[in-house]
Design a protein that fits this description.
Elements: H1 5-25
Length: 43
């Protein structure tokens, strides 16, 4: 293997990860849906 192969791939991975984290930070957060249950559990 060529010298620097692993280092290059590690740098590429870190760049992709950083871009993904930046994109993820700007996405709207999903709200949890509250399921309305009837008062009478027999229904």
């Amino acid at each position: 293997m060529a010298d620097g192969y692993i280092e290059k791939h590690q740098l590429d991975y870190e760049a992709r990860k950083e871009a993904w984290l930046r994109k993820k930070a700007h996405l709207p957060k999903q709200q949890k849906r509250l399921i309305q249950r009837p008062d009478d559990e027999a229904l």
